[in-house]
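Please check this chain.
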Amino acid sequence: MCPVAIVNAVHLLIYTSNPEADRGFFRDVLGFKSVDVGHGWLIFGLPPAEAAFHPVEGDAGQKHAGHAMLGSAVYLMCDDITATIEALAAKNVASTEVQKEQWGIRSTIRLPSGGELGLYQPTHEVAYTLGAAAPKKKARATVKRKSKGRKAKKARRR
């Protein structure tokens, strides 16, 4: 088995009716750091992630760049959904009723655009801790130089 993943990251596209407001939410409310790739277009660094594949009825995907892409739902994960909802409420973020599922405890939070993101506290084993660790720096090879003896030292002094 290959010790290094074939890809090095996942880029998530979130479609919204108000990208500026939702970018501000990610930056100011959730505290995600970003890079500005030009004209205020922010790309956010995200916490570790995981992916699960669920069956779909009908066509749940969408077209992007002329290709049929898989559909997806975004869930932000947390260790304590009650504390997370309270912290978000202190920042005037609305959430829906908390529901217990076989796989976790879930809710949704509303973005400034009116769109919603899932929020859940998993009750199952998580996979995001399995992600690739940062590459370790290789130890610098120590090169021993052979001494050329006294003649070489004398030559260097001259």
User: Anything to note?
Assistant: The domain at 1-52+73-132 is CATH 3.10.180.10 (2,3-Dihydroxybiphenyl 1,2-Dioxygenase; domain 1). DSSP finds three helices and eight strands in the chain.
